[in-house]
């Protein structure tokens, strides 16, 4: 995706969130909009704490409860997906119509890398069929060390 289409997608998501709020009789408060901007404007998987920190860095203020409630609204709207990587807290990412994708998580630095592999998609379907199972979706998370952490500190 080019930078221009990224910006257009983010703008479309912002507008969709405003419409969702209006359609559900929820006020489009400044806090809600800045929280949405933070999550919709990144390709990272942010924790609620990271969202709150970024909101503060942008010179806005939103309490922890407001951040969590807004994240719930964003998830209900379908614009944001909640992820649980077994870290004891949830992470959030813009859905942006992204097809199913998998995650690699570094157990040292916490970096999350997304990937797609059509071979894996076919394999999960074949495995499900072999067990007389109708596959709807799957989730794969691979834990290990990213290249930077594996190589160690730069000398």
Explain what the structure shows:
With 155 residues, the chain is α+β, with helices and mostly antiparallel strands. 48% of the residues lie in helices and 16% in strands. It is built from six helices and six strands. It has helices spanning 3-23, 30-40, 48-57, 64-77, 118-130, 147-151; strands at 46-47, 80-84, 90-94, 102-106, 112-115, 141-144. A three-stranded antiparallel sheet has the order 1-3-2. The two termini are 35 Å apart.
Sequence-ordered SSE layout with sheet pairings:
Elements: H1 3-23, H2 30-40, E1 46-47, H3 48-57, H4 64-77, E2 80-84, E3 90-94, E4 102-106, E5 112-115, H5 118-130, E6 141-144, H6 147-151
Parallel strand pairs: 4-6
Antiparallel strand pairs: 1-3, 2-3, 4-5
Helix pairs in contact: 1-2, 2-3, 2-4, 3-4
What is the averaged pLDDT score?
86
Tell me the helix content: 40-55%
Spans where pLDDT lies below 50 across 5 or more residues? none
Termini Cα gap? 35 Å
How many alpha or pi helices?
6
> Largest sheet, described in full?
3 strands, antiparallel
Shape category: globular
Order of helices and strands: HHEHHEEEEHEH
Radius of gyration: 18 Å
Q: How many β-strand runs?
A: 6
Strand order of the largest sheet: 1-3-2
- Secondary-structure class: alpha+beta
Beta content comes to 15-25%
Please tag this protein with its features.
48% helix; alpha+beta; 155 residues; single chain; 16% strand; 3-stranded mixed beta sheet; 3-stranded antiparallel beta sheet
Quick structural overview:
The chain has 155 residues and is α+β, with helices and mostly antiparallel strands. The protein has helices at 3-23, 30-40, 48-57, 64-77, 118-130, 147-151, and strands spanning 46-47, 80-84, 90-94, 102-106, 112-115, 141-144. It has six helices and six strands; from the N terminus they run H-H-E-H-H-E-E-E-E-H-E-H.
């Amino acid at each position: 995706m080019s930078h221009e289409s990224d910006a257009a997608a983010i703008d479309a998501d912002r507008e969709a969130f405003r419409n969702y709020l209006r359609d559900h009789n929820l006020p489009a408060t400044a806090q809600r909009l800045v929280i949405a901007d933070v999550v919709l404007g990144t390709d990272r998987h942010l924790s609620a704490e990271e969202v709150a920190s970024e909101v503060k860095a942008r010179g806005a203020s939103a309490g922890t409860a407001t951040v969590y409630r807004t994240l719930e609204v964003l998830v209900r709207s379908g614009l944001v997906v909640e992820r649980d990587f077994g870290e004891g807290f949830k992470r959030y990412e813009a859905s942006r119509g992204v097809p199913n994708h998998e995650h690699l998580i570094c157990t040292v630095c916490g970096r999350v890398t997304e990937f797609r592999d059509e071979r894996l998609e076919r394999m999960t379907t074949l495995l499900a069929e072999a067990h007389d199972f109708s596959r709807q979706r799957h989730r794969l998370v691979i834990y290990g060390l990213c290249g930077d952490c594996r190589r160690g500190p730069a000398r």
